[in-house]
Write a structure and sequence with these properties.
Layout: H1 25-36, E1 43-44, E2 50-52, E3 54-60, E4 65-71, H2 80-100, E5 104-111, E6 117-125, H3 131-140, E7 147-151, E8 154-160, E9 173-180, E10 185-187, E11 198-204, E12 209-214, H4 221-240
Helix pairs in contact: 3-4
Length: about 240
């Protein structure tokens, strides 16, 4: 009795990108956004030929960017201008989607065979984390919770010296923010890369507030945030020791 050889199972092809790009961080982030919005993703066969219309992502690994292009389904009966109009409409929808999500979406226009400038693709740059996102994550590594507060266009983080609840009035607490001296402004809701300031930590004893730590203004955002979070953790440890 002869047995039929087992058929090799072909791994499913990824949607929206080629197999070599599926684990690139900016591609994964862009795919999540497109999928959440219900945007169709381009499908490819084993020879990497597009077989279904949708979004196609091609990463630029050196810069952290990703190129987004709408690959239209080939329809012999469709007029060229009809296909161009579809590409323009869908690509502008992509641009709106990513800009709302705080990505930078640069438009690439190219001249086609008719001599007209057409929107060909987008160059997407993932959003930078805000100072609040950086510090919240850094403090979490030390088991510390921070609470956002704001007033008159300024924003900051309030950190209890004991426990994790938002400290009430008159309660000792730490206050962390980016101080932008040129604008005389404090914030945590913007990326640090967009401004010249750095982290400042203040201690409020319930009656008065004083600066107790300021990071090196020449340190990069990640290093400055890690140093500030470590300082906060040490203060809390001393206070509760």
């Amino acid at each position: 009795m002869t047995t039929k050889p087992a058929t090799a199972q072909t791994a499913p092809r990824p949607l929206g990108c080629l197999p070599g790009s599926v684990d690139v961080p900016q591609v994964k982030a862009a795919l999540r956004l497109l999928t959440h919005d219900g945007q169709p993703l381009a499908a490819f066969d084993e020879r990497d030929r597009c077989i279904s219309a949708g979004a196609y992502l091609d990463p630029r690994r050196e810069t952290g960017e990703v190129v987004l292009e709408f690959l239209a389904e080939h329809r012999p009966s469709a007029e060229y201008e009809e296909l161009c109009d579809e590409r323009l409409r869908v690509t502008l929808e992509y641009a709106d989607l990513f800009r709302v999500a705080r990505w930078r979406a640069g438009e690439v226009w190219e001249r086609d065979h008719t001599g007209r400038e057409r929107l060909a693709r987008l160059i997407l740059t993932p959003p930078l984390p805000t100072a609040r996102e950086r510090m919240t994550a850094a403090l979490a590594e030390h088991g510390i919770t921070a609470h956002r507060d704001e007033d008159a266009g300024n924003s900051w983080l309030v950190i209890p010296v004991t426990g994790s609840d938002f400290p009430g009035g008159g309660t000792p607490q730490l206050v962390a923010f980016i101080y932008e001296a040129h604008e005389d402004w404090v914030f945590v809701d913007e990326p640090m890369e967009h401004w010249a300031g750095t982290w400042q930590i203040r201690f409020n004893n319930g009656a008065a507030e004083a600066v107790i730590h300021q990071c090196d203004p020449n340190a990069d955002p990640a290093s400055a945030t890690a140093a500030a979070a470590k300082f906060v953790a040490d203060i809390r440890a001393a206070w509760n020791g």
